[in-house]
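Table S2 (text version). Query chain:
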Amino acid sequence: MTPEGCSPPARRRAARRRRPQPPDRLGAVPRIFLSPPHLSGRELDLLRDAVESNWVAPLGPHVDAFERELAALVGVPHALALSSGTAALHLALVALGVGSGDEVACSSFTFSASANPIRYVGATPVFVDADPGTWTMDPELLAEALAERPRIRAVVAVDLYGQCCDYDAIAAVCAERGVAIIQDAAESLGATYRNRPAGAQGAVAACSFNGNKVITTSGGGMLLSRDADLVAHARKLSTQAREPAPHYEHVEIGFNYRLSNLLAAVGRAQLEMLRERVAARRRVNERYRELLAGVPGISFMPEAPYGRSNCWLTCIVVDPDEAGTDRESIRLALEGEDIESRPLWKPMHLQPVYATAPAYGGGVSAALFERGLCLPSGSALTASDQERIVETLLATRR
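Corresponding structure-token output:
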């Protein structure tokens, strides 16, 4: 078929192939990724220091410094650098004494890593739907779950797409039963809740430095808490629960969860740029809102009045009746232009692996999954990249 006989998006692709494009190293137009790493250049300096000092294995001076610096930034006294955010959630549950026979309330609208550690410790997840005004855990549904299920020992409250949960409301509900709050802050580092940094709201919090997060160590995480004993226990567990003896002595099961000194060096350089990276992602979010202002059937994730999101990912919801297009048509059109996007999280209560788990509510997160899309949101995304993305999106409208 000739370009003239193609659909409008196909014609644009054909025209783009004919006109000069800024090449990457292989001569192709670079793919636009959803949330790629954004390095500052300082990473090489600190990596060089780690290599030259011969501290390349887990633990080391950069690990210690990374823990101190992140704890100071968040405003909690204790931090433990780990191999992933999932490891932090797992250790939080173990250190809180959650185990077989217990239940843990967990946000349903999240990635599976929020829920899987509950199963690691032998407990049962109880999924709680999202509040439509924030997309985070609904405190009223949580109260209902706590009232009906006396075996719930902890709550994993997930900060979603860079926005904190309403922790005052959640804490008020949990205080009645003495239930511990585990803050899954994997997506919210750099955000705030009532003018306080994300990560300081729960009894314990878990951060992630996966490659797609606002800052990255390529892979890594952090456990944060005001409880010195809890963090000390988690620290012991993270190094195979070795006892203080000249030989290897173990009285409890441990894990190999510590962060390497090399990755901590990368994390320290990234942490220096956190404020700038959050500001850039918020600008990306604002620009999308400007470019799509007034387009029927396209709405954005609301920003809760109690906090400030880091806008890790910019998320839209597409009403097919009003928009003249749908989520999947947009996603496929973007992919056809070598632009990565992703549906919103499929709720845990709809996942086959959790089909038998109890759930409270579910319709809000199910509807968001059905119609929602995450747009490319990297802190290095250019204005021209965003125009290309929005042009492709709008071309799908009938």
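Notes on Table S2: Confidence is low (pLDDT under 50) at residues 1-26. The chain is about 35% helix and 15% strand.
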